[in-house]
Amino acid sequence: MTAVQTNTAGSPFGSVNAPRRSVLADEIYEILKSKLMDNVVEPGARLSIDGLSRDLKVSATPIREALARLESDGLVTKRAHHGYTAAPLIDARTFAELFRMRLLLEPACASWAAEIATPRQITAMEDLIAEMKTPLAGDGYESYKAFASQDAAFHGALAAATGVGLMVETLERLRPHAQLYRLYYTVGIADDTVREHERVLEAVTRRDQAGAAHAMSAHLSASRGRLAGALGQPETD
Prior knowledge:
single chain, mainly alpha, Arc Repressor Mutant, subunit A, Four Helix Bundle (Hemerythrin (Met), subunit A), three-stranded antiparallel β-sheet, 10 helices, elongated
């Protein structure tokens, strides 16, 4: 297990050492999340609160708050008497199980949304897709974090449009996007994902329940295929 360096010279957070002013917890969260998503902090690496506090020139309080948020994202894990570590990359079994669950739930979301989504909800999803068409500026997390957020927001909005609160909570607990985006930077995703989202929303707008479910199934299956290669695993049915 690789420990995160706590000295300035060896720290993956060296670029943010200079500021000596207080940094808010959400800023710390974004700094740490960026390093975790790009695997600058390696999976399994220990995240020392004291070490991060020294590196980032802040008190331990915003570090703890940021790590708690990252734990809820599934990007770090916490064990009693061991503290925080960077979560391992998703493995082949968890990857397969995640997509099985999504293929059970999200086509149903799309179908229900096609039945009852309001015009305002449909417009909001159109806006999300339009925002996702902004060209990516590079390969790292900083370049695609807006896209990642918009992608997750689209799936969340579709679930919300069902009016089934338990469905929204269930999909949030799966936390698929944070884990999968640690793989996304190795494969091309943006153009294909946008086109697939457009097909889902076109069916929802037509009130075509079967078409919406089919388009979502096709999107998730294509996404699974793209990411299976990043895992070095064959696609699993």
